[in-house]
Write a structure and sequence with these properties.
Layout lengths: L1 H22 L1 H24 L6 H25 L5 H23 L1 H18 L3
Helix pairs in contact: 1-2, 3-4
């Protein structure tokens, strides 16, 4: 794991220097995203040695939900009239969240029901409910 973290650091430091110079604060965020993505790829390869899973199956529904939520966010951004920044943030956040969660529940409702039943069962057995 230390090797992965060192590789991420070796990628991040030059990436953040260049990206901040080119794009400002947005560049810092992009460099951080690149570092996280690199860690995900390396750690997924390591995890495959111990568990059989498909990264595509694991990530495609959340990424689709993210796309739907982001699309709704951008569509609603220009449709909203004048309002305070806080109200705009709350409104757009709610729309994006509903798009994301709606997509996940639409595609994975069976898994969501199963996870909810496991969670409720665990709460009952732990004395929490």
């Amino acid at each position: 794991m230390l090797r992965v973290r060192l590789a991420q650091l070796a990628l991040f430091v030059p990436a953040v220097i260049v990206a901040v110079h080119l794009f400002g604060i947005l560049g810092a965020a992009l460099a951080a995203d690149l570092m996280v993505l690199a860690g995900l790829v390396v750690l997924a390869r390591i995890a495959r040695r111990h568990a059989d899973f498909s990264l595509r199956k694991l990530l495609w529904v959340p990424l689709l939900g993210l796309g739907v939520g982001a699309g709704l966010f951008w569509a609603m951004r220009s449709a909203l009239g004048p309002m305070s920044d806080v109200l705009r943030l709350l409104s757009l956040g709610a729309v994006a969240s509903m798009g994301y969660l709606g997509t996940l529940l639409l595609i994975e409702r069976r898994e969501a029901r199963l996870a909810l039943s496991w969670g409720l069962r665990a709460l009952r057995h732990s004395g929490g409910g």
